[in-house]
Amino acid sequence: MQRNTARNFIFTLFAFLLAFSVHAEKLPNVTILATGGTIAGSGATSTTTVGYTAATVGVQQLINAVPELSKIASVTGEQVFQIASESMTNEHWLTLGKRVNTLLAQPNVDGIVITHGTDTLEETAYFLNLVVKSRKPVVLVGAMRPGTALSADGPINLYNAVLIAGSQDAIGKGVLVALGDQIHGARDVTKTNTSTPDSFKTPELGMLGYVQGPKAFFYHATTRKHTVDTEFDISNLSVLPQIDIVYGYANMNPVALNAFIAAGAKGIIHAGTGDGSVAAKVKPDLVAARKNGTVIVRASRVGNGILARNGEANDDELDFVVADTLSPQKARILLMLGMTKTSNTKELQRMFYTY
What we know:
Blueprint: H1 2-26, E1 29-36, H2 59-64, E2 74-83, H3 90-104, E3 111-115, H4 121-131, E4 138-141, H5 154-165, E5 176-179, E6 182-185, E7 190-191, E8 200-201, E9 209-212, E10 215-218, E11 243-247, H6 255-262, E12 267-272, H7 283-291, E13 295-300, H8 315-318, E14 321-322, H9 328-338, H10 345-354
Helix pairs in contact: 4-9
C-alpha cells in the first residue's frame, strides 16, 4: 500500500511538473514595437478624452500597465518612434517595415504587436501587409482614448493584440488590426469615427474575428495576396516615389492636381465623387498629366464598393488605372510600392486586382 501511494505521488508530481514545463514552453515570444499615438497619450484630467497629448508614454510603461500580459506571452518592448500618427511618413514606414522583417526572421520571435496612433493606423497596417516577409502574426493596435482617461481602451486593446500575435490561428492571416475586441484585416479596415471607441470597422467586407476570453476566434480570411505572397521588397529601398491624392468635390478645379505634379508627383490618386467620376474642369489636366508620364489612378471618396473600370471614364483609352475596392489612402500605398517595380499601367492594374 505504501509503495503504491509513493508511486502515485511520484506519478502525480511528474505529471504536474511536465504540465508546468509544457505550459511555460508554450508561452509565445511577442515583441511590442511602439510608435506613439493615443495609446501612449495622456490628458490633463481623468475625463479628458479629446484634446489630450499623444505619444507621451514609453513602451515599457505601456507593458507595465498591463501585468496580465505575462500570463499569455513572453513580452519584450522596443521604442521605434514616439510620434502622433498624423505625422507618419514614408521614411517611418520603411524603417518600421525593415525592423519588422528583421525581427520576424529571428526564431525566438513568434509575433509582433505595433502600438500606433489611430489616425493613420489603417495605412501603416496596409503598407506592412504588402511588405512583411513572414507568415508570423503582425498586429497593429491603438486606442481612441488616452491611458489617463477613466474609460481608457488602450490596456485591453494591447492585451488582445498580444493574445492575437501569439495565437497559432493568426499565422498566415496577413497583417491584422485589433481594437474593441475585434480582429480586422489590414486591407479593408478603416477608421469611421473621430472619437468613439468603436471607430474601427470593415464596413462591407467584414471583420475577420473576435477576441473573447483568452482566445482569438477567426471566422473569415482575405482572398487577396499579402505578406510572403507579394512581389514587393523594401530591403534595399531608402525612398518611395511621391504619390499624392486629389479630392473630388462640386466645383472642383485642377489647381491642386497641377501643384502636385509641379512638385514632382509620379502618380496621382484621383478620389472622385461616386464611382470615381472625373469633373469636366479637371479631366483635360488629368489626361495631359498621363500623357506626360504621371500615372493616374481613379478611386472614390465614397468609402465602399468596387471602382468600375471604364465606368465613369474610358480608362482603356485614357490609360488610367482603377483602384478596385481600395480607399484613396490605401490606393496611394499600393501605387507607391507598385511604382518601385514598374510604371506600366497594365501591370499596375494587375496589382490593384491582386492586392
